[in-house]
Amino acid sequence: MNDLKLKLKEQLIEHLNLEDFTVKDIADDLPLFGDGLGLDSIDALEIIVMLDKNFNIKISNPEDGAKIFQSVNTIAEYIENNKS
Amino acid sequence: MAFIHKYSTISKGNTFNQGIIDGCINSKIATEITHPDYKDIITGINLRRMSVIVKMGLANTIKCSSRNKIDAIVVATGLASLHNSELFLCSLIDPEQSILSPTPFINSVHNTISGEIALHTQNKGYNITYSQGSLSFEGALLDSILLTKEGKNVIVGGVDEVIPPLDNLSMKIKSKEEFTTGSTFFNISPNKNGSLAEIVNCIITKEEKANYYITDNFNSNEDVLISGHSTCNHSKKINTLNYSKFSGILMTNPAFGLQLAVELLNTDISELDGCKLPSRIKRVFIINHASKNDIGIIILRK
Amino acid sequence: MSISITGLGIVSAIGMNLEENLNSLQNLKSGISSIDLINELQENFIAGEIKLTNQELSLIAFEKDKQEVFPRSLLLSLIAAKQAWGENKINPKIKTVIIGATTVGGMDLAEKILEKDVRIQALAHNPSGIITDYLADYFHLDEFKTTVSTACSSTANAIILGSRMIKNGLADRVLVGGGDALTKFTVNGFNSLRIYDPGFCKPFDNNRKGLNLGEGAAYIVLENEKSLSITKNKKVVSILGWGNANDAYHQTASSPNGEGAQKSMQLALEEAGLKPEDIDYINAHGTATVNNDLSEGRAIETLFGKNQLFSSTKGYTGHTLAASGIVECIYSILSIKHKTIFPTLKHNTLMPELKVKPVINIKKDITINTVLSNSFGFGGNNATIIIGK
Predict the structure, then answer these.
(1) Which residues fall within 8 angstroms of residue C1, CB to CB, at 6 or more apart?
(2) What angle in degrees, to the nearest 10, is found between the helix axes of A2-15 and A72-82?
(3) Among residues B255, B301, B254, B258, which one has the least CA distance to residue B280?
(4) Is residue B45 helix, strand or coil?
(5) Which of B236, B239, B257, B42 is nearest to B137 (CA)?
(6) What does the alpha-carbon distance between residue C268 and residue C297 come to, in Å, rounded to a whole number?
(7) DSSP B163
(8) Which residues of C159-171 are buried (b: 16+ CB within 10 A; e: fewer)?
(9) What is the pLDDT of residues C287-298, one digit of tens each?
(10) Strands, DSSP E only, in chain B?
């Protein structure tokens, strides 16, 4: 699970072009949207693309993203629960 | 009516910090485009998504902004973000792409530059983008002149980029200059006080009419003509400075020419790039041979 | 200084000229259907497609067989511009300019090319300005020309520039408009943002899922009194006011309360010297995205109150992107001339957030003197025009 979270952080940094961040800056429970990291609705769509490409996880309703993408923890949990 | 108060260019040489005459024309190392450190200028997380052309336009805007309230943002771009257009096109053709990334699509939209400038500076005023090939900047400038007539302070500028495949293509016009990336922006207002120069006129016309206009108005004892092309009819009779030589070829480089003109009017200089200049320059004519028959003319005076 | 609209030209999914468009509007005939002419779309999209190939459009535009390949947006624009320009002639006493608008430009040519370098060359050879360049040459308009590119508000902004040029004496007559064809680029682009409804778009409906794109082009001719006295053209309606403001909220989305929209509408009212109660009908931007309709609906309610008559006509044509401003300006003119409000199609359920209700059934024999039309683009670009008798 920790490997997965590390991989997720690396991919978030790369896919969302978070040049100023390292994996150390993204705590497992850091809120990704709103007041935490400050990601927006476009980033949410990009995370959907990222999960599809890198983990083969498909999220058909972008509105589900609000719950799933709260933090690295919640994304990792979702991946674990939905591995095909 | 329309007065230039500030300018900023990102191009070959150290133009962002030193201007065009010192940073580019008189500099021996002006071969590469010099970007400022955008992280120093553009704060916040939005930088991550910005394309190069947005960064250039925004950095120039921030440099040009002063204490006056900005009422309008006007941007010119010939080809917008070629990089993002090509990225998205590529993804459409790639058979492995089952799901498309939206970022290159939204970044390819031509008014992303003016939109992002407004977003970052929280400017809720008039906002527009012009894209008329090599005459894009003249359109933007004309709207800016109109805006100053309407009493508004304007940030106006041009930006274009080159991506590697464009370098390789034999689209070079008569001159030997390369396609390049660059951006020049201005702060223009209806106030003469503290201004650097006044825009007298900005027109688009055909070659024949342009020749008459220049012949009727240009005075070689006190005026300077700068042109985007090294070969032009006027150069036989008139000592012409070629600005494309320094900016490189990009559709919005008349903006670069305009900044050069402002600098010429505000610098004590008798000669530039082998071109003799009048001792006291009254006006500068910026001639843009946009295409084989279309000419853009901007006239500037102190 | 009055600004008169004298010439009109339009092609869309509901007609290849003004009469055909009017007919469809009056008969509630939508032009939205499965996309036939674009190959290799990954899903079955529906859109307001003009069911004519480029060859057929070329024949209409040039009235003869032309070997040369043109961008589809250029062909649509030329057909519409010719209709609008009509019998107008070049006259040295009438300072005439041309202002075009497009989002897509020549993208349809580039997206067909598989080889990368050649594709980029096609992009660079067909910048947005080529359509206006071609039209300027075609109509011998040798002075000022430009193209506005602000996504969905492009033609609205083009009309605003034309009006301001006339108001400030920089032009006597303006040929203004724009066009956007359907492309793989835009269809997939909006789908990647998850705002493309796989079914019929439902503007201002609580269950709306997004837009359907459309293609089209439209042009109008604007004239001042001096030009009118020489051309003797008949005024159709006047341009009374305009406004442009930036939402500065997000790269693509509108602010929840529609502040930018409120501002552009407020500015247009001020320019026209009108009050909100003077607006008889609003042709909304109404794209049917969750975001736009809430934002715009709130802005309309705040400024005009809950009894304001408004509708979205995008259920007929789809969202014609850059052309939407001018297409809807022309539909607003038809509303005035034919005393009819064309309804918001496919509407079932009101939005609980709004007290103001869209017109969902065609309203005939209603006197309409003044119409306000909105067009909102990416980059927070909000443009509003007001036309009237």
Answers:
(1) C166, C167, C224, C225
(2) 110
(3) B301
(4) helix
(5) B257
(6) 17
(7) -
(8) bbbbbbbbbeebb
(9) 999 999 999 999
(10) 2-10, 72-76, 126-130, 154-160, 182-189, 197-206, 223-227, 240-242, 271-272, 275-276, 283-289, 294-301
> How far, in Å, CA of B139 to CA of C180, rounded?
21
Which of C120, C165, C379 shows the shortest C-beta gap to B114? C379
Q: C-alpha dihedral over B110, B115, B117, B123, to 10 degrees?
A: 150
Q: Do C146 and B132 touch (CB under 8 A)?
A: yes
CA B159 – CA B161 distance, rounded (Å): 7
For residue C378, the model assigns a pLDDT of 95
State whether C252 and A45 contact (CB < 8 Å): no
Predicted complex: ipTM over 0.90: yes
Q: Give the residues across from C383 on adjacent strands.
A: C244, C375
The helix-helix angle for C324-338 and C154-167 (nearest 10°) equals: 70
What average pLDDT does range C40-56 have in this prediction?
92
List of chain A residues whose C-beta atoms are within 8 Å of the C-beta of residue B108: none
The secondary structure of residue C259, as a DSSP letter, is H
Written as one letter, the residue type at B188 is: I
Tokens linked to B103: 């970022």
Matching residue, tokens 């108060």: B5
Q: What angle do CA C152, B60, B118 make, to 5 degrees?
A: 35
The residue behind tokens 């998504």 is: B49
Backbone angles phi, psi at B187, to 5 degrees: -110, 115
Give the pLDDT confidence score for residue C271 in this predicted structure. 98
Active site residue C152: yes
Is B131's CB within 8 Å of C147's CB?
yes
